[in-house]
Amino acid sequence: MSEAVSSRVCDTPGCGGAAKLQCPTCLKLGIPGSFFCSQDCFKSSWGEHKKLHKLAKAVSGGDKKGQYNPWPGFRFTGALRPAPLSSTRVVPDHIARPDYANHPTGVSESEREMRRSTGIRILNDEEQEAMNVVCKLTREILDVAAEGSAVGVTTDEIDRLVHEASVDRECYPSPLNYFEFPKSCCTSINEVICHGIPDMRPLQDGDILNAPSVPHYGKNKAIGIMKPGHVFTIEPMINEGTWRDELWPDNWTAVTQDGKLSAQFEHTLLVTETGCEILTRRRVKDGQPHFMDQW
Questions:
Q1: For 30-90, where are the E strands, in sequence order?
Q2: Which of 67, 83, 124, 221 stands the most exposed, by the fewest C-beta atoms within 10 Å?
Q3: Which of 146, 158, 155, 184 is nearest to 82 (CA)?
Q4: Which residue from 234, 245, 239, 244 is spatially nearest to 280, judged by alpha carbons?
């Protein structure tokens, strides 16, 4: 095992200890992550972990069977293809969890109860301040993800950055296990409209990447006039071609039906007496989106 690993968490499910070692085979294959706190943890995870090596070889062309494809016969609408997934990351026990975190199928009973309501909850001053704190932390985590995104970086590595940044801030990454979503953020590439699952595919020059990490609050389809104290998420999805979508067999990845590009923008807003406050705005460069930094 390779030494000199710092500020990482052990990848062994249920451990959460500080990582001190990294899998040498993963380093050789260019697989990010794969950190462990001890040889014992590494050995106990080996049966499952070694599958990642085989899958990574398949993606890079090292597998004689050709390109990795978990759904033989499925008709893809565009050029993007799935890649292998790493193991689901673990959130330390001391961090508070939403009700779906430990549900066997990721069902949120509190969300179901909320949907029975006909109105939108108005947050009081204390609740608004709490939402401000949550969204400030979310913005910090989004910035970590954006700064870690580059050509050659896998979306699985971005997921690791989001997961660890969340844990560092005593936060639970909200997508994790929501209706069994296996990762800590969504990463939607090119023709993927939304809900792409982070995997071992490296980002390529010219890719469109959407990696939202925004807290949703309230009932999406409530009818009425927005009032001060309401908090909502707006997330326009703009497609180059048709508005119609299809779903990959993973039951999450939504893609454009014609395979053309899609881009999504997402923010959480608080309704005030004079308008709206963008709670998840970028705190520097007057809120300019990260992709504009490249211009």
A1: 35-36
A2: 221
A3: 155
A4: 234
Per-residue pLDDT tens digits of the chain, which is 295 residues long: 544 444 577 777 767 778 888 888 877 776 666 788 888 888 888 877 777 777 666 555 444 445 678 898 999 999 999 999 988 999 999 999 999 999 999 999 998 888 887 778 899 999 999 999 999 999 999 999 999 999 999 999 999 999 999 999 999 999 999 999 999 999 999 999 999 999 999 999 999 998 875 443 334 455 678 899 999 888 999 999 999 999 999 999 999 999 999 999 889 999 999 999 999 988 888 778 777 776 6
Residue type, 132: N
Residues 6+ apart with CB under 8 A from 183: 85, 88, 89, 159, 175, 176, 197, 198
What domains can you pick out in the chain, each with its CATH number? 1-68 (no CATH), 109-294 (3.90.230.10)
Q: What are residue 238's DSSP bridge partners?
A: 263
pTM above 0.70, yes or no: yes
For CA atoms 67, 70, 71, 76, the dihedral sign is negative
Nearest to 192 by CA among 252, 234, 148: 252
Buried b (16+ CB within 10 A) or exposed e, 97-119: ebebbeeeebebeeeeeeeeeee
